[in-house]
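Recap from last week: sequence in, structure out.
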Amino acid sequence: MADHPPHDTSRDRATTIEELRASGWVSRPIKHEIREHAIHKVASGEPLFEGVSGYEKTVMPQLENALLAGHDVVFLGERGQAKTRMIRSLTGLLDEWMPIVAGSEINDDPYHPVSRYAVDLIAELGDATPIDWVHRDRRYGEKLATPDTSIADLIGEVDPIKVAEGRYLSDELTLHYGLVPRTNRGIFAMNELPDLAERIQVGLLNVLEERDVQIRGYKIRLPLDVILMASANPEDYTNRGRMITPLKDRFGSQIRTHYPLEVSTEVAIMKQEAAPLDLATPDGVVTVSVPEYLADVVATFSHLARASNQVNQRSGVSVRLSVSNYEALSANALRRGLRAGEHSVVARIDDLSALPASSQGKVEIESLEEGRDGLILDTLIKGAVLTVFKDAIDPAQTRAVVDAFEAGTVAHTGEEITSAELAALVDEVEALREPVLTLTGGDQTPGAIASAVEFVLEGLHLSKRLNKDSAGPSATYRGRV
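Predicted structure tokens:
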């Protein structure tokens, strides 16, 4: 196996068909091209593309099989499962540059032209026909299926302007090509395919089987070279439409996607996708960090929501929920730090109060009573904190902490309490030091200590080992006796 991807034509910058032949360039179908690059990736142990986590042992082997088999693919899954990202990333399996007949609207192959324009041009100029080079990013076409999508959008239509210029209606040059022909020799994606009207779906049947299109009854046949990808939501919960059976039958593979199976995978996606919030101010740079245990809380919240009977599971709980919540947590920490004049801000339990606002539009609550959405989300957040606390802290490490609070220690928390004030509680309650340092990994900066202190206190409260009195954004923790 070669050490470089096959068929790299980036150096073969021919300008005519004659020069192209001399360079040794060989034409091959799009599916063969993708298969060659996929073979190289699989043989070398590389992933098909970067930036998609959690599918290594589930979705990716199925996708590799589909590409090696030369199948058109439909990805079936709930919202926020990286279906569109995977489809768009497939352009990385194309040659970096591809030659086309210069001026062609449908990327005509210089050796095998299909449009009337290219056929006539080559008949006139022969091997002197000029060629252009198209980058692989321009060989991708995409359409979001909407009820108003027409055959003209996808396949093509008569261009009245070209007719007005004096051409006959029977002249193939009067055609205005749609998105599918314009993606000839490339990848065409249809997002949310079931939303496409059934009569329009019929128009894709020839593309998938006979590999041609017919426009407005013209006696033409465009033998297109396209690989078709589609995304769809499971039909058992979408009421907006369905994928017609003959169209399903023409897709070579149907691949079921899923949400991250592990909290650690969801955390990795959150960190990859979340926008950084470090901020330059007149007083210096303000940095924001989220401790691992709080990142686990955000991811666990999503996992609990996906298992909750109070959340509509048919609509799904997108990974975008985790990303938005992670960003909201960081933003609340930044706002709190700016008001306190801190330059190294660490997120803490207080900042979880920002999650309901970033969750409301992404989670469909199923409740018989009005106004319970906030309560249900709050319960899920508390459940996430408790779950992570039990995994992170050995109960033996907190017995002495509970004893200290039962002996009369009281702790105040809230946005108005600075990191230094919260961190000082470790000096007051020496028993806090062990669980706190377990959480911080030895980091003894005020922000890290304060965040860990508050997490331990909240975890003990949710474990029913400490009492908590809340008053708006502030809270007081005390013993239960």
